[in-house]
Amino acid sequence: MFTARRMGAALGAGADDDPQAARIVDAALDEFREHGLDRVRMEHIARRASMHRATVYRTFPTKDTLVGVALTTWVQRVLGDIADAVADHPDVRTRAVEGFTIALRTLRADPLTNRILLADEAGKPFLVTYGGALVDAARTFFADQLRLADDADGIDPDAAAEIAARLSLTLLLIPDSYFRLDTDEDARAFARDHLLPAAIPDPATS
């Protein structure tokens, strides 16, 4: 079983730096999107990647290892795309609002999100077992982004990133909400009115 500790360790290293591993991971992600994590076997992934099964096993000795690295790579790509998309916005609070909006839209639109939400691991929902490691990855990434910002003085980057990551994960896990989040404007309004005051309070109003 791919334990939560091993998932946490894997989150530091995706597959995009290794062309062969990236090809296998891309095939795995496509299979997971279409069929879910539980039903896909290594031979399915090998066939989609146009590789011999032995080659896949040499790169990823077990399916659990491949699942961990594939989801790591997926998370890294999503976070990287968000960071690129908000890089030109003028201030840290605007970047946070737009980043939340893009993340919510992207993750809701990706079939892999629902596959992960519905997946089981040892009789428990996948995110109950591995959610902490995924939150930790998102928190680390966004905290690092805050530390690089020129206008983030007075902000606790780890606390802000933790609040944003956990709140975002909750909205994905339980999409029914008092708050309207059907459109990008809904998401921006929620982020401005509720996420920012909790995660990145404005010192002018403190």
UniProtKB/TrEMBL annotation:
Pfam families for this protein: TetR_N (PF00440)
Organism: Nocardia xishanensis
Domain of life: Bacteria
SUPFAM superfamilies: Homeodomain-like
Keyword DNA-binding attached: yes
InterPro entries: Homeodomain-like_sf, HTH-type_TetR-like_transc_reg, HTH_TetR
Binding region for DNA: 41-60
Identification of the protein by name: TetR/AcrR family transcriptional regulator
Record keywords: DNA-binding
